[in-house]
Amino acid sequence: MKPLSRASAPAKIILFGEHFVVYDRPAVVMAIERRAYVTAKPRADNRIIVVKSREMGASGAFTPSGEYQPIEGGLEFEPKFKPIYIITKRILSLSGEETLGLEIEVDSSIPIAAGLGSSAAVAVASASAISSLLEMRLSRDEIFRLAFEAERFVHVNPSGVDPAVSTYGGILLYRRGEGIRRLDVEAEIPIIVGDTGVKRVTGEMVSRVSDLLMRYPTVVESIMDAGENIAKLGVEALKSGDMRTLGELMNMNHALLCALGVSNDMIERLISAARRAGALGAKLTGAGGGGCIIALPEKSNVQGITEAIRNAGGEVFVTAKAFEGVRIEE
Amino acid sequence: MKPLSRASAPAKIILFGEHFVVYDRPAVVMAIERRAYVTAKPRADNRIIVVKSREMGASGAFTPSGEYQPIEGGLEFEPKFKPIYIITKRILSLSGEETLGLEIEVDSSIPIAAGLGSSAAVAVASASAISSLLEMRLSRDEIFRLAFEAERFVHVNPSGVDPAVSTYGGILLYRRGEGIRRLDVEAEIPIIVGDTGVKRVTGEMVSRVSDLLMRYPTVVESIMDAGENIAKLGVEALKSGDMRTLGELMNMNHALLCALGVSNDMIERLISAARRAGALGAKLTGAGGGGCIIALPEKSNVQGITEAIRNAGGEVFVTAKAFEGVRIEE
């Protein structure tokens, strides 16, 4: 066993197809260079699993019976830490080290509850850090499966896209029933993320779309056809590195999401600011009703777009496609 | 011959289907209680046709040879007055009064070049006022045809919807190749019109859509399918007087127009203001890139929406469906 192991995994954005994906249409998801870092080390007090998060300012211990005892912060952090605990127990069991005590420290720069896949990135990095600590040589597929299993405890019917993109990096094409496929994209893709600061409300937005589909089936089906066609052309634009087309398709995708009623005033403000500052395209990413927008800049206007989004009231960071998924940090 | 005759015809808004109509999809067009008034009287100086417009602060005379001589304002007003001159000559010829001189005065409260069908309303009211002056009992169909013929001189390939709605009033369903059908709608429909003050640029916007269709045919076709389905459901909502559905469909139609890139910042500002103030729906009307937005209010929030649009920088007026088309004013 190593004295300490540290791993990281990237966040994700949805380039095309959020919401449509629920209705068996394709989605295109990209890993971005914003990472969750997880450090694992052994503890002397056997069987106690301590989990800490710097960003949340919280920590707690899971006892051998699986009970959560807060150290810093209250019981409300238990659901956040539970997937990490599940992964830890599973890996300890696989390695035959059931009685080992561990300390797992999360240090993530991914905004939480913003639709950027923060929890999946933490789960993937945890699986990697813990298995590496125990000198188990898990494959990426095994790490993905461990993280995905843990996600099932917190999300109802997760698609697995989030842990997949955090594990493998790059750009994934996903369609329910057809599974996840990694796209071969050479191009560097810069992305500016603007956070509305409003927590996204996935469930409410998903219901809103299903409601609209019930009331206007012919309209919503045609909109989803358009969304599917955008995703398909988006894949081509990504492969050929055609940023102008990529941006235009992002704009169209966003308008379709507006038609489904999942945008809001703050999202529109940030998007409009990004476009006015010269973004090739901008859209909400994720469920909407809050959360983040993404803008595709040109090299020359990264700073202008960043400032425009900030002036419009958004928290902003500049990032890019993460070629690499989960990795051990030395 | 009467000493004087005065007629009026209503402006129009497009409830559903602008742009899509160019690609053989249905459009729903409504006459509104904002009218162009035209007064016709004989002149002693035979064969001289004088045309005046109060709003434009312009007037001029067409000589027997058809030459335009400005009286007030310059030569730039000739194209504006030409359709009126064409209608006048045509009616004089039909009545056998070729040598009569006439004075035609236009007094219109319809914003010009804002997509509200101002020129068609003026043409229709002119045909009515002049034929009534000469005591010819023209049918509505004949008045429509006279105005439509004159429109052909100023617009390339006009659909005929504008003169039709100004002639017949109410709500029309139009589809290229299938012609124009009047819908039987009992409900009163209040409408708030917000003018961006930016002249719309129909040609540029139509090219933008045709360009997008060339580059993304599958996407744009699906968007137009959605637009067609919205128009069809819109007709049902109008017939049943379901204002809530009507508003929702207007919002969706607007988002599709955004997807086609024909909205702009000012349009979005006015629409967002109207929606925040409680409009059941809001959309651009006409070609976009400027021009007007329309908002569907509830009785209780007409004033709030009006103020919100004005505060957002729009000129605004409150109107409603015009049941009546062209009419003689006593």
Outline the structure in words.
2 copies of one chain form a homodimer. By secondary structure, chain A is an alpha+beta fold. Chain A has 2 domains: 5-183, Ribosomal Protein S5, domain 2 (2-Layer Sandwich), CATH 3.30.230; 191-319, 2-Layer Sandwich (Alpha-Beta Plaits). Helices cover 41% and strands 26% of the residues of chain A. Chain A contains 9 helices and 13 strands. Chain A has helices spanning 78-95, 118-133, 140-154, 161-168, 202-215, 217-240, 243-259, 265-276, 302-311; strands at residues 5-16, 27-43, 49-53, 58-62, 68-72, 101-108, 171-175, 179-183, 190-195, 281-285, 292-296, 315-320, 327-329. The longest helix of chain A has 24 residues, at 217-240. Chain A is globular, with a radius of gyration of 20 Å. Chain A binds chain B through residues 215-216, 218-219, 222-223, 225-226, 228-230, 232-233, 245, 248-249, 251-252, 255-256, 258-259, 261, 265, 268, 272, 276, and chain B through 215-216, 218-219, 222-223, 225-226, 228-230, 232-233, 245, 248-249, 251-252, 255-256, 258-259, 261, 265, 268, 272, 276.
Task: Provide tags for this entry.
9 helices, 2 domains, globular, alpha+beta, Ribosomal Protein S5, domain 2, 330 residues, 4-stranded antiparallel beta sheet, Alpha-Beta Plaits
Walk me through the topology:
Two copies of one chain form a homodimer.
Chain A: E1 5-16, E2 27-43, E3 49-53, E4 58-62, E5 68-72, H1 78-95, E6 101-108, H2 118-133, H3 140-154, H4 161-168, E7 171-175, E8 179-183, E9 190-195, H5 202-215, H6 217-240, H7 243-259, H8 265-276, E10 281-285, E11 292-296, H9 302-311, E12 315-320, E13 327-329
Parallel strand pairs in A: 3-6
Antiparallel strand pairs in A: 1-2, 1-13, 2-6, 2-7, 3-4, 4-5, 7-8, 9-11, 9-12, 10-11
Helix pairs in contact in A: 1-2, 1-3, 2-3, 2-4, 3-4, 5-6, 6-7, 8-9
